[in-house]
Amino acid sequence: MFERNRTENPSNKREKAISVELTMDDGCVLKGRFFVAASRQAYDELNGNAVFLDFQPYEGARELISKAAIRSVRLTNIPKNNHLKVANGSDEFDPHDILCVRIGAEWETVREAYHRLSKLYHPDRYANLDLPEEVANYLDTMSRRVNAAFSALEKPHHVKREFARAKSEPIYQRG
Fold first, then answer.
1. What is the gyration radius of the CA atoms in the chain, in angstroms?
2. pLDDT at 87
3. How far is CA 117 from CA 34, 40, 154, in A?
4. What is the mean pLDDT of residues 93-104?
5. Is the domain of 19 the same as that of 65?
6. Residue 158 domain-assigned?
7. Alpha helices in 47-132 (DSSP H)
8. How many domains is the chain partitioned into structurally?
9. Total Cβ atoms within 10 A of residue 155
């Protein structure tokens, strides 16, 4: 009786996040993820006609970054956790979720969470046990994901400190 028209709703558009490290023209390194349509690959998006890249740093809000300002892009190889079903239905890499810390948490909180989890999943802890292959794979994957999450959150902390130090040093001094 009634004809139902299918309309495309941009908010329902399926997209995937790709974890990357962007080196900008000014030397700044941004760690986060950029978003592409689920049917596209990272290379399609980077080499496409669009002028901007939809990017979200791990410690910030989603923004558009000019492709012309990007010097290099390094895809981060985050191991997938296929051994257990993901709780929220997403297999997206989120360093805050992996380390169980909130976004914008103090550096000490992030560091403590990393140390706690790295001790829990450290390979030496389970080296002498005869574990099923699935459990051993899960522990190895989680160890690598915890290290990758800490690395993703660690770099911006040190970059900010180095940038502040470099900004306070004089550019030129007469001898």
1. 20
2. 45
3. 27, 34, 15
4. 88
5. yes
6. yes
7. 95-99, 107-121
8. 2
9. 15
Where does 22-132 have alpha helices with state H?
Answer: 42-46, 95-99, 107-121
> Given this model, what pLDDT does residue 114 score?
93
Pair of tokens at residue 49: 């006609």
Its domain, for residue 45, covers 14-75
75 pLDDT more than 60: yes
Structure tokens at 16: 């995937």
Which residues are CB-contacts of 19 (< 8 A; sequence separation ≥ 6)? 32, 33, 75, 76, 78, 93, 152
User: Residues 158, 101: one domain?
Assistant: yes
Average pLDDT, the chain: 78
Q: Is 174 within the bounds of a domain?
A: no
* C-alpha to C-alpha distances, 139 to 20, 28, 43, 79, 84, nearest whole angstrom: 24, 34, 31, 12, 11
Integer Cα distance of 20 and 10 in angstroms: 24
What integer is the mean pLDDT of 5-23? 67
Say what the pLDDT of residue 46 is. 86
Digit-coded pLDDT (tens) for 99-158:
999 988 888 999 999 999 999 998 888 888 888 888 888 888 889 999 988 988 876 555
Structural contact between residues 20 and 73, judged by C-beta atoms closer than 8 angstroms: yes
- What three-state secondary structure class fits 41? coil
